[in-house]
Amino acid sequence: MSLKETAGPLLLQPATLEEAWRLRWRHGFAALPVAGGTLLRTQWENGVLAPPSVLLDLRRIGGLADIGPQPDGSLRIGSQATLSAVLKAPASAGWPLLREALRMIAAPGVRNLGTLGGNIASAVGDSLPALLALDAELEWYDGASLAGQSLEAWLEERRAGAAPERRLLAAVTLPAPGGAAGAAGAAGEAGGASEGSGRARAASGNGAGAGGAEGACAADFSGGHASGGRWHAWRKIGRRESFTPALVCVAAAGGPAAPVGAPGAWLRLAAGGGSAPPQRLRLAERAALAALAASGDAARAAAAAFEAALTEYAPAGDAFADADYRRRCAANLAAAAVWEGWTARGGERR
Ligand SMILES: Cc1cc2nc3c(=O)[nH]c(=O)nc-3n(C[C@H](O)[C@H](O)[C@H](O)COP(=O)(O)OP(=O)(O)OC[C@H]3O[C@@H](n4cnc5c(N)ncnc54)[C@H](O)[C@@H]3O)c2cc1C
Fold first, then answer.
1. CATH class of 2-57
2. pLDDT (0 to 100) of residue 239
3. Has residue 120 got a pLDDT over 60?
């Protein structure tokens, strides 16, 4: 461990997770984990959080930034991997939904410092809806061992007001592409995949219910279809075109894209944005699948997803957008994603 004398907080730089945990205990959990520091710094500057007396710098811990495919075809990403490193890693090419979400976080300078672990541990990062739609599993260190927990379960705890997380996030794992569990994983693989992204200007009355958000919004849409029939979509609405956290973001993954209503249809929907932890939209998924099975009509499935998402999604309002605007916006984005996915029209807008 190295220890740095600074004018500000005491900076502790452990070399292993075990050492990090011991140091956290020694300081009565007042030692705050810091990865890239990009979110923490804005929180200190905005007065959301007081700078701590002790900082636990995780960047020197060996192996924590590794990104690699696993023998079962899953992808394991160490919590200290930067957003840029995940974007550039050849191993992440099979998970285009995650890449698209990361590409729309902040700007390159911030992505070069900010980590995926910091984005996840914040419980409000824009990567989270995509990770939810990909059935991500978190790996936590609690001082004794590494333990897995589904991202969805962890976020539900946060939404229910669980005490601040004390464990250290070691990694996140994405299941292998190739079916419902792998969500849209293979959509970026070579051979028949179509993928792309676009930007659109959307007024605050963009079908999400007028007047809930201050000023005009910028929207990012991307998605793609794969030869295996899987599809994915990513939607982010922010207060400006880039360099800004989402007011609303929605991730979707499903299949098969054609024929519409084919047996074995599956769907993942998740929404986030603002200060409430993101949420998997299970009611909307079930409603859309039931409508698709009953009618074979993607438009009916989209309408069913819209109605159910309005009921189940519970975002928080703030000075920038009220909760009702976010809810309606998310329901519209989810419906659009469902319709585009199942009609294989994800590329039309681009
Ligand atoms: C200009 C600007 C634009 C931004 N735009 C976006 C945006 O569009 N979307 C978005 O989501 N974010 C945005 N951010 C916020 C931030 O850059 C990202 O969320 C980034 O991924 C955070 O990662 P970090 O490594 O910097 O986290 P840090 O700031 O180091 O930490 C964030 C939180 O996670 C905890 N933490 C970090 N690592 C661990 C770990 N391994 N175990 C346990 N706890 C841990 C920290 O204690 C802290 O509470 C923006 C920031 C700036 C400055």
1. alpha beta
2. 84
3. yes
* Confidence class for position 61, pLDDT limits 50, 70, 90: very high
Distance 250 CA to ligand 1 centre (A): 19
Please say whether the structural domain 67-174 has been given the CATH code 3.30.465.10: yes
**Do residues 236 and 219 touch, judged by C-beta distance below 8 A?**
yes
The answer to whether the CB of 106 is under 6 A from ligand 1 is yes
Architecture of the domain whose range is 198-342? 2-Layer Sandwich (3.30)
- Prediction pTM value: 0.90
Q: Give the strand order in the sheet containing 75-78.
A: 67-69, 75-78, 168-174, 137-141, 146-150
Q: Is 37 in the pocket of ligand 1 (CB under 6 A)?
A: yes
User: What are the tens digits of pLDDT across the range 232-275?
Assistant: 999 999 887 777 788 999 999 998 877 776 788 999 999 999 99
Which residue out of 12, 34, 60, 120 has the highest number of ligand 1 atoms within 8 Å of its CB and is therefore the one to mutate?
Answer: 34
